[in-house]
Structures are given as structure tokens and as C-alpha cells.
Amino acid sequence: xxxxxxxxxxxxxxxxxxxxxxxxxxxxxxxxxxxxxxxxxxxxxxxxxxxxxxxxxxxxxxxxxxxxxxxxxxxxxxxxxxxxxxxxxxxxxxxxxxxxxxxxxxxxxxxxxxxxxxxxxxxxxxxxxxxxxxxxxxxxxxxxxxxxxxxxxxxxxxxxxxxxxxxxxxxxxxxxxxxxxxxxxxxxxxxxxxxxxxxxxxxxxxxxxxxxxxxxxxxxxxxxxxxxxxxxxxxxxxxxxxxxxxxxxxxxxxxxxxxxxxxxxxxxxxxxxxxxxxxxxxxxxxxxxxxxxxxxxxxxxxxxxxxxxxxxxxxxxxxxxxxxxxxxxxxxxxxxxxxxxxxxxxxxxxxxxxxxxxxxxxxxxxxxxxxxxxxxxxxxxxxxxxxxxxxxxxxxxxxxxxxxxxxxxxxxxxxxxxxxxxxxxxxxxxxxxxxxxxxxxxxxxxxxxxxxxxxxxxxxxxxxxxxxxxxxxxxxxxxxxxxxxxxxxxxxxxxxxxxxxxxxxxxxxxxxxxxxxxxxxxxxxxxxxxxxxxxxxxxxxxxxxxxxxxxxxxxxxxxxxxxxxxxxxxxxxxxxxxxxxxxxxxxxxxxxxxxxxxxxxxxxxxxxxxxxxxxxxxxxxxxxx
Length: 625
What we know:
It is built from four helices and 49 strands. With 625 residues, the chain is mainly beta. Strands 1, 2, 3, 4, 5, 6, 7, 8, 9, 10, 11 and 19 form a twelve-stranded antiparallel β-sheet that branches. The protein is flat. The model is unreliable at 4-21 (pLDDT under 50).
């Protein structure tokens, strides 16, 4: 009887271990070896959160990729951008996994998708195979690593998702292949006044401090005083063992006088929220420094779930003369943590702007709903503000510094048309205010703009100036709202004075000396397009066909370089004896290369290649093989 019970117990243990092993995730490549990451979950990538992890392949393409858990392929996607060649697995237990930037798939999947590409005559394709058509046990080969899509170098992008396709942190599954014993790094902190009456070191705006590490803790490189409503942003990052890459921070906590004010934990991310990174980071600082400063507070319009555990929206309110104690903790996925602590008070006899961030060379700057004007100490104590209907009001300075008088205008009340100082008039270029919860149609002599309800995160004060570039003979439609990305796109119509070739002319955004194709549809002298960002726009005419350069033309393989210097490549079509040929497109290398459906059948006969750019220009190449 005793032996029988031991047998049952052993059988249960073996079954339980097998079940746990079968249900756990396996690392998708180089199992049981130390691997290295170039990106982590929730990392900030300019205009989106990074979903999942990026696993390095030592610069190699073709590293075998294995199913991280048993399941079936529910989606196959091939695109020239984004994830490139990607597989999506369903594990029948409420979890899924994604493998992206592959060079090729497992043979059975590869043969299937090539047939589908030839059937639809399209390189870019998405297919949803029937359930269990491609079923793989954990550890079986599903594909090979690559550099396809919008990848900046060979690697595997790997995700774990729940049943709703929300992305979970893969590092929370404790893969032994990843080692991290390094504490995250604090580099800088920025304090920001959140309304017209708040002050930092006696002044208004953004104030930045470097952070000094002493005995495993971080401290400010100077004293700070604050009063009113203050927002805090940090520039911080994590590193893994033996790697220089700056990765994302998983968890951020802030305590104000020992009371927890902020608890942001990136355990799960939704693709519906990833574009809202423009509210998670300070976009003013990103545009100025090209670094992502994480905001520890929620400003208007920020409804991200990562902030759901925060008190008072993470905003620090100081309204007394007491000394206040701050503690900020950052933690990575392996619970390595760093601490920043500092004190503040609101005693500041003299305004100290030594830490203030200057965003432009002008004496006028706009921060949220406040206009700041800086004038010399010899200027009189007030300026004149011209509003609509020729209403003029005097505005007295808000405070003095050692060298200047600072005037602050509350834009929530009414938008000024002009500011009149002792020696000049300043045109503010304000057109109108748009509110998130209201639809707004603006009709101006140079443009029309439609903002539908919930297009915006927050109130937007439109500033605009029509310019003319005589050197390049260009009309420039300049909006001064480059730090205000919308939640949804505006509908914009530009009213042109020049005559354009309506088939070849389109809207381009202007950034320094570069032009980026947007598109648009013409109706009379108006061209209509959509954009989430109100920046600088112009209209360019592209009449030059794309370029084609032969690289390899044999009976077994065809390779060409294709490029277009202005509007960009829209489409390409290759045929042999009138029959469509699959060409893979690597836009990073301006390269297309053939892939046969029948590897034994040579390319023989009349070949033609047609390349079309986004302006409709066409280039043709014909020859006989």
C-alpha cells in the first residue's frame, strides 16, 4: 500500500512538472545560452512605446527561431516596413507570441505564403491560416532571424501577448538566457511650472538639474525651490549586463513627504495606447534634446492606464514655506533599483535662472497656455496687449531677474493679437483656440482646418504664418505648434496662390532642409490632406521618374536598385512573358529581389519592370532573358 501511494505521488509530480514545463515559455533562440537585448518592453521610441523585447543576433541573419510555446500560427504578415516578415502564434491558453523582422519562415509556412503572394500578386500580404494548419510544439523551428521591415539591424523582435493582444513584459517570465544585475541610471531631472502662478527658483518655465551619484544614491547638482503646481520629468534608462544599450525603465515611483504620489508600472501595454507616448514623455524636451524625459505627472488629456495608481495626477502642489522631501525610485524588470532623493522649499529671495531651459533665441516663448515675454530691466513696468476688436489692455511684469523683466500672459482667457513694447510691435500669430471635447472648423484666408471632437489631447492655440521662399519659389504654410501632436488627424486644406500641376504636385512637410511626402487631393486651388501634427507644409511638384539600376539579371535571380529622390516609391511590378514575378522589397537598401514559386523553372523570355512613384511618375525597364 505504501509503495502504491509513493507511485501515485511520483506520477503526480512528474505530470505536474511536465504540465508546468509545457505551459512555460522557452526563449525563442539560442536556448540555455546567455543572450543580449537591444530593446526592452515599454522603451520610448520617439512616437511610440516599444512592445516586447529585441534580441540581438550578433549582426547575423538566419539564426534559427523556435516556438516559445506549443501552439498554432494564427497570422502571417509580410510588409516592407513595420515588423517586416512576422509570425503570430496562439498558444490555446490565453497567451500569444510574436516573432518579427524574420528573413524567412519555416519551409511549410514559406511555401504557403509564396503561393498566396503569387495568387494575390502582392509582396505585402496578411493571411490568417485555418486553426492548426501550422501547429508547432514548443522548441520546433518556425523561422529564421533577419532585418526585414523597419529594423535598424539584424535582431529578433519577440512579444508575449494576452488573449486581447495586449503586450506583456517578456522579462517577467524570468528567462535564464538574459542576465541583468545592473541598477538603472538617473541622468537628469526637469521641474516645470504647470500654471501661470507657479514658480521654480523664483521663475517660470522648465528647470533642469544634472544628477550626481554618491554611494548608490542620486542627488541634485544644486538647490531647488518650488511653489504652486509643479510637474517633474526624469531622463533615466536601464542597462543589462555587459551591454551599453540604454533600455527602458519598467517601474517609476515618487514619494512626496513620504507619501506615494506616483506609481507607474509598465507590465502591460495596449496597441491602442502606444501612440499616446506623446503625453507620457515631455515632447517639448524631446524636440529640443532628442531625448525622452518621462513625465511623472499627468497633464490634461493624458488618460493612459500606466498612470492609474497615481494620486493628484502626480502633480506636486506646494503652498507653504516648509521644506519638502522627495524620493524617486526607478526599477527594471529584474527588480534592480536606484533612488534619487532631494529637498525643496519655496524661499527664494532672488530669481535664479541658471538652471532654466531656453527653447529658442526669441524673447517670446509659449509653454502650454502661458505666453512668456522677456524684456530688459530698463523697459517700463507694463506692455500693451492688443486683442480682437481693437481692445487694448496693459499687462504688468510678473517678476524680475537680475537682467530682465518677465511678462506672463494667460492664454486660457483670451488670445492676444499683438504685443506692443516700447520699441516694437510683436505679432503673436494666434488664429484660434481648439478644445478637445468640441468640433471646430477654422476658415482662414490661407487655409481651412477641421478638428473633430476628441481629435486633441488638450486645448490647442493655433499659430500660423504664410511665408514665401523666393530662393526655391515655394509657398510655406507655417504652423507654430510643432510640440502638439494630436490624438487623431486634422483635416487641412491649403489655399494656394501659385498654379500647380495638379497630377504631380502634393503636400510635403518641411523639416530643416528635408521634405517628406504627405500627399493630398486637389479641388480647384485647394489641396486637402490629413495630419496629426501642425508643422511647416509646402507644395512640391515631382515630374522625375524613379531610378532603376540592374544588379543581377540571370535565369535564376533578378535584383535591382530602385529609388526616388522626392515623393518616394509607391509600387513596382515585374513580369516575365506577361506573368507576374514576386519581388521582395528592402526599402533600407533600395533593393528588390525575385523569389520564384517554382525554383526549377528558369527566368526565360521577355522581362519588364515597372516602377511608380507617389506622384505617378513611371519608369520602365525591358529586356530579354
